[in-house]
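Section handout 9: paired folding examples.
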Amino acid sequence: MPVHIPETCKDWRLPFVEMPSFDVQQAMLRSEAEGKKFKSLEFAHKFHVFLRPDNSGVTFNTLDNRKIWRVGIRSRKAYSLNILFSKFRLPEGANVFVYNADQSEVLGSYTQENNTELNLLPVQPIAGDEIIVEYQEPLDAAFKGEIEIGEVNHDFRGLFRATEPRDPRQSCHPNLVCYPEDVQPGSGVVALIINGTTYCTGSLVNNSAEDGSPYLLTATHCINRDYDPAFLANRRYDMVAGSIVAFFAYQSPVCDKEIRGPLQMTMASADSVLISERYDISLLKFKQTPPKEYQPYYLGWNVSASPQPPFHGIHHPNGGTKKVAIENDPLAIGSFDDPRYNMEPNGHWAVRAWDVAATEEGSSGSPLLDKEKRVLG
């Protein structure tokens, strides 16, 4: 847990690094314009920072032989803040915590088990406009840990505020539990934060070996929103995949009310396995296997050229909990005609008009399931 500050030291003040102001209204307009092209949802403004123990916060030693670095981060009027550790390599015995001022929400500890070859660690949002980052390292650690905060992301939409966002569109989308036959396959659908700023949906998919490999399927435009050609050349797909945070079981427990789902069951960071810009498909693989208590479900897939209805879409529209959309008619073949994206003509299944609900911003990357609850390919 975070180091306790004794009552006799309560007058000690932690310095906060303040993010500059930005035009929230302009950010909202840009986000909405981009969201109309596809169904990804930009919810946060990114600040690039370089916060390390040698240039920010305070450092002190404890009586139990630990060195502590603690830094506060503030971005005024943010609904929530999330960060990316752009350098993260810890020795055995070291711990990182991220929390709010009253420690009513504490994330961590993050340890050497979270080290990856990319030396990155994305951290899920914490509600409010202030967070504190604390790094604890044993004085006799095998090596000096590498830790740097490289990004601070300011939530301007309120997706991760303390209460469920009030969006009138959500009432048009039935909750997952309204359809009992979708509850089990729905366990394979996750909400995604990508690059700290974009909200999408993804799904766990099985493989022919059925060995439980944690493959994650989503849309390429969720990872590369502008289809920047430099992504492939500069390995940006690998870096953005490494920044993903997935939320399991983010769903309402009842059918007829909007009750906020749990946000505690998360997975961070994945590798890119296959990226197809032409077909807007990204197959990723989590760096760790989801714990059994998350009850992960690996969806099968169907590559038939003539799948049969009904079709169910399970998704996270508008940054909300898990919903269901239903189409009872045969699917069409469709194209995205925006020349900037250079997608394969007639390369996508198209729903002419949903019979129940619809998709929204945030639904991008979600699976369309056949009547056997397999992902359509």
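Moving on to protein 2 of 2.
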Amino acid sequence: EKWLWEAIDSVFAPKLLVRQVIIVLALQTGVASFSTISNLATLVASRMTRKGKAIRNLKRQMRQATTFASWQKFANHLDELEGHAEWRKEPKCTLYDHVVLQHRIDEIQHLMHSGDVFSLMFHLRGGISRPQYGVLHEGLFSRAHAGTKVMVEQYQRTLCQA
């Protein structure tokens, strides 16, 4: 019987297993506690600081907006307050190829001004039918409230004009 317990102890290592389960539970509890405390601190800060109050007020106004124009105005103010307006204006980003996209915008605008309808149709068909240059990357649409990168919006407007 002693050899059986020694075999079970060496194969399954219950002491080690129990120790590892306790460590995992302690780590999970620590992470959950940190997350809760962090969320609570953010909530308290948002209620006590001027910036936090302004952000809450703008979000409330966005929810209560009755027109897109008023919603857009509040979203732009919120982006300025949170620093996302600068992110939108800066064309450089790892989420999309801004160099190729700017070249594409310039190329389509040149074709529109030159009146070359056949080449314009050829370029549009290739650009609209499949996602290119990373302009549909999820990260471009989840950061700012009022929109995405200005260059991506310019590309979309150029495609619509063409």
